[in-house]
């Protein structure tokens, strides 16, 4: 009997678990439910760039704050009223409040952070502080 090897991806299992939890909690949610936008975090040319998927959300519905070295992207998206009358067979599009937070490296200057929206994606550019050069220290023990 020939066996096959397949590469184990622990993050794939976590993604599946998250999907199951999302479905489970969707059953208990009411109107105005909270949701979490998907984000990417990239280092690019001395900056930390965060991209959050916020399709259909206007820039004025997005709030970006930095407090105690924590960046938070949040807001609220209202459901269109005329669609409440329809009988949905399946509904996956999100509405309600949303929030994502992440810790920033020490030394980031909040006033230098910039944000823009394009094609349903909010992009936050955070200039990273310059790192102090690390110097090796050699310690020689002495006899007591």
Element string (H = helix, E = strand): HEEEEEEE
Structural class: alpha+beta
Q: Please summarize the sheet with the most strands.
A: 4 strands, antiparallel
CATH topology of one domain: Immunoglobulin-like
What's the topology here?
Layout: H1 10-28, E1 39-44, E2 47-53, E3 62-67, E4 70-77, E5 96-103, E6 114-118, E7 121-127
Antiparallel strand pairs: 1-2, 2-7, 3-4, 4-5, 6-7
Please give a handful of descriptors for the protein shown.
Immunoglobulin-like, 1 helix, single chain, 3-stranded antiparallel sheet, 144 residues
Protein described:
- With 144 residues, the protein is of the alpha+beta class.
- The protein has a domain at 35-81 and 92-129: Immunoglobulin-like, CATH 2.60.40.
- The protein contains one helix and seven strands; from the N terminus they run αβββββββ.
- The chain has one helix at residues 10-28, and strands spanning 39-44, 47-53, 62-67, 70-77, 96-103, 114-118, 121-127.
- It has a four-stranded antiparallel sheet, with no helix packed on it.
- A hairpin with a 2-residue loop joins strand 3 and strand 4 (70-77).
- The chain is flat.
């Amino acid at each position: 009997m020939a066996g096959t090897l397949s590469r184990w991806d622990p993050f794939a299992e976590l993604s599946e678990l998250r999907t199951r939890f999302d479905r489970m909690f969707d059953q208990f949610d009411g109107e105005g439910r909270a949701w979490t936008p998907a984000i990417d975090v990239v280092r690019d040319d001395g900056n930390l760039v965060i991209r959050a998927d916020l399709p259909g959300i206007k820039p004025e519905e997005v709030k970006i704050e930095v407090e105690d070295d924590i960046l938070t992207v949040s807001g609220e998206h209202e459901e269109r009223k005329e669609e409440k009358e329809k009988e949905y067979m399946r509904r996956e599009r999100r509405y309600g409040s949303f929030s994502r937070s992440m810790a920033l490296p020490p030394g980031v200057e909040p006033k230098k952070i910039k944000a823009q929206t394009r094609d349903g994606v909010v992009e936050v550019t955070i200039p990273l502080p310059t790192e102090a050069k690390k110097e090796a220290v050699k310690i020689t023990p002495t006899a007591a």
